[in-house]
Write a structure and sequence with these properties.
By secondary structure, the protein is α/β, with parallel strands linked by helices. It contains 9 helices and 7 strands, in the order ββααααβαβαβααβαβ. Bound molecules: magnesium ion (MG).
Length: about 220
């Protein structure tokens, strides 16, 4: 099966998988799966359950700012982009606090949202990513996922297509590094026992996926 990617940063952009690649590693959110209900609507509903009324447009605006703030914290940390289960949980606690404010309901809203996004049913397949993953499997390549998502991904993946088709799942909290750190990619190389030039990273983020993987010596492909 030959799939023609919409855009490509690979040596032979008209062929997938590209020659010489023996393993393909996919980003998760926005590439293989996406929230079944938008983040803004999900947050607004969680707020409402705790008696906090916030319209989805306000949530979306505050969420985007909060997300960027957390990325900045990681970028300027003493060890940039190092992470852990505690750091990932704290990231989301702070994002929820930035969105809803430090009021008494925020702890309950955070617990609600943390549990919500840990459920396979809260996610749905991105058809294009699933097609690429299956094309790679059909071509006899190893398919894995490596994500800035945290350890909740380990429980979700076996129950959610196409994540369940992956031979290995690498969440950032378990690697100890987030993209765009080169160490993130080095860890996956070691675990898959591949050289950088044998690996293709597929993702929807031009910086965190495509540029970061290319900087680590991998081939990379932008989708979405
Ligand atoms: Mg993504």
């Amino acid at each position: 099966m030959v799939v023609r990617p919409r855009s490509a940063v690979i040596a032979a952009p008209d062929a997938f998988p590209p020659a010489g690649v023996t393993a393909i590693v996919f980003d998760v959110v926005g590439t293989l799966v996406e929230p079944a209900v938008t983040v803004a609507d999900t947050y607004a509903a969680a707020g409402k359950r705790q008696g906090v009324d916030l319209d989805p447009a306000t949530v979306a605006r505050r969420f985007a700012t909060a997300w960027r703030r957390q990325e900045s914290i990681d970028a300027v940390a003493a060890i940039p982009f190092a992470t852990s289960r505690d750091r990932e949980r704290e990231r989301w606690r702070e994002i929820v606090t930035d969105v809803f404010g430090p009021g008494g309901a925020t702890a309950a809203i955070f617990a609600d949202l943390w549990a919500h996004f840990a459920l396979p049913a809260s996610w749905r397949t991105v058809r294009r990513g699933a097609t690429l993953a299956q094309a790679a499997i059909d071509a006899g390549l190893v398919v894995a996922v490596a994500s800035n998502f945290d350890e909740r991904l380990l429980a979700i993946a076996p129950h959610l297509d196409p994540l369940a088709r992956a031979a290995a799942v690498f969440p950032s909290s378990e690697i100890g590094w987030r993209k765009p750190a080169a160490e993130f990619f080095r860890h996956v190389e070691r675990r898959l026992e591949r050289r950088p030039d044998q690996l293709l990273y597929v993702g929807d983020d031009p910086d965190l996926d495509v540029t970061a993987a290319a900087n680590a010596g991998w081939r990379s492909l932008l989708v979405g």
